Amino acid sequence: MNKDNRLLWLFLSLLLIAVSAVALYKTWPILFPKVSISGRLDPNCDLRAGPCTTDLTDGGRVSFSIDPRDIPTMKPITLHVSVSGMVAQEIEVDFTGVDMNMGINRVTMNPESDGQYSGDGILPVCIRDAMEWEARVLISTRKGLVSVPYRFITVRPGVPLP
Predict the structure, then answer these.
(1) Could you give the count of Cα atoms lying within 13 Å of 91 in the half-sphere of its Cβ?
(2) CATH code of the domain in which 57 resides
(3) Could you report how far apart the first and last alpha carbons of the chain are, in Å?
(4) Other beta carbons less than 10 A from residue 62's beta carbon
(5) Are 13 and 86 in a shared domain?
(6) What is the DSSP pairing of strand 144-155 with strand 130-141?
(7) What is the mean pLDDT of each run of 10 residues along the chain (162 residues)?
């Protein structure tokens, strides 16, 4: 390999490292948002039975529900978020697999009326018969980002809930 080829490969390698660093820097806040207030995970929450409500330490309240209640995969679902005791500038719902990386699945919620938001999304199918998910309701406020977790399980068609 001659000297020109080595310099070209060195330049291309440095360019790839620089582009990767910029991409990581730009996506870091999206992938790992800085949370000001965290809600507690309610182990008694059953989104298949209806909305779950979380009271926050600062006096705010967040309710979350998913329709249809059987929470299918690879079919449209509608998300509903209700907030009180705070002014939301923007609301998103971020879905992550509890014990398996399922990629980026984030839904931006649309305001419907005072404190009521909805959005449409699709959960990806998993190779497992049952998949545990965490939906984090992310609420941007003047005080910072509020994050409230809700967990649920999806199952393949024909497989009973665990």
Answers:
(1) 26
(2) 2.20.130.20
(3) 60
(4) 25
(5) no
(6) antiparallel
(7) 76 85 72 71 92 90 95 93 94 91 86 94 83 94 91 81 70
